Amino acid sequence: MNLSDPRLVLAFIAAAGALGLVLPAHATTLLTEALILCLFALSLDLLVGHARLTSFGHAGPWGFGAYVAAGMLLAWQVPLPVAVLAAGALTALLAIPVGWLCVRTGGVAFAMLSLAFAQLGYAVVFKWNAVTGGSDGLPGVPRAGLGEFLAGREGYHLLVVAFLGAAYLLAWGFVRSPLGRVVAAVRENEQRAEALGHDPRRIRLVVFVLSYFLAGVAGALYAGFARYVSPELFFWTVSGHVLVMVVLGGAGTLVGPMLGALALFYMEHQLSALTESWGLALGLLFILVVIFAPRGLMGWLQAWRPRRRDA
Amino acid sequence: MDPLALLTLQALNALSLSALLFFISLGLTLIFGIMRVVNFAHGALFMLGAYVGVTAHNASGSFLLSLVAAPLAAGLLGLAFERTALSRLYAREHSAFLLVTFGLALALTEAIRLLWGADARQAELPDALSGIVFVMDEPFPVYRLLLIGAGVLCGLGCWAGLQRTRLGLLLRAASQNPVMTAALGNDVGRVRAFVFALACALAALGGALAAPLLSASLGLGSNVIIDAFVIVMIGGMGSFLGTAAGSLLVGFAQTFGNYYLPELALGMTYVVMIAVLVLRPGGLFGRPE
User: Which run of H or E residues covers position A129?
Assistant: First the structure.
């Protein structure tokens, strides 16, 4: 069984959707939030795993998407799916100038630049009281234009599942596409890719924009889920957190980061009920994973199944 | 208030903030200069210094002792972390360091929450330091003047250590060309461990010094680390002069910005950081990587 088989992944996502209809109300809400985080981690994997650009500022597109969607829902009662897609599109638009500046660099400078942009977003929403509500954020974001079922707990869960499935297909299709292969080529050997006539900076920009689009969608879904946005969405610890999910699951596999998001979310909720020192355990576990299992959960899972010709 | 006096007092406030920021960013830049590692845990170590400082002060009644205990604890922790975790990663790419030090920041913050609880701790200053002096007929806390002095002393000490001692020569050599330094019979691994421990101790000393002013709270580390990143990026990673200049720039920008342009001050720091990274990726005083 190949864990990266898209049919299997989509089946899992569909199963998560069905699960939301039978689980108790509280568990369904948690699962919805976990699936939104899956989408967030998936978007970061395109940058970190596929293009090997370690972003420490993914809270930026996440927060931006959330605020844009919240603004549209509050001000104009735009139907939620439209607001989510529009938020994603605007995030992608923003990603063009931001990405153009960021992908000039790599390594530490890229991490720091992306971090600086996310913090700039934090500063703007924190201080621009008139529009963003400042430190109080924007409460009471409506799930507009969804009808009674979709705006409810189970309906919204299914909506998130649909977006996650579509996002996964998009990311998977991109990685498989000729353009996605060039991204891998640039990652593995920039000089050779350049010699073949590809512009590494432009290629990286494409991944950057796609990644920001999906992160914006995830943030927008979160705004509708929590019905509340606050500057904390932009804070750098959010960026760190989603990076942990990607690495824990296994960067560069698309499925892994989603598993990482589920695992981290589950552990946080289960362990925090069991013991007070769960955060400490989690931090230590993360250090161990980075050192001893650079390929994350997916690395372990794939080591168990029989060897295949192509991973 | 006399405008000139106001300006002077704010400049002094800015200098004392710069001094605190200098302690944490100096360690960050040292670590980067020698090991090419960005230490995300540096804010958490600053915070650890604040907590250990408050506890040591309350337990022993001696403020001076807290300034010894905090760097000692953080230095030992840093040494252990470098030997057990970081030293395994030097062959790997940058992102592994970012991630593993972020893990340390998480673990350390949680450990502090477990040990000290979620409430903020405020350190009481000894009577000798809690007084005020009059600067241009306006009252000014003695302790802030002391911080400025400590920052200057630390800067001069580190500069002299780097430029005038044999150990400093070794550090600079290891920073410029670790392979050649090792080939000349020096143990670069030990140099790295020493620098990491020293940098952690400096951050904790800054934290212990900051505790009476800012109080020790759980958000302290994640807030101060961003300022330190801004400083180190503006000044140039690994540049001693750049770090001093960056600390002054950010200290003054925050103090004056919060007074005159409270809406824009926070964002402006990040705009400057972005501009420097885009225009001069190595920072104002650094070499491009």
Answer: helix A129-132
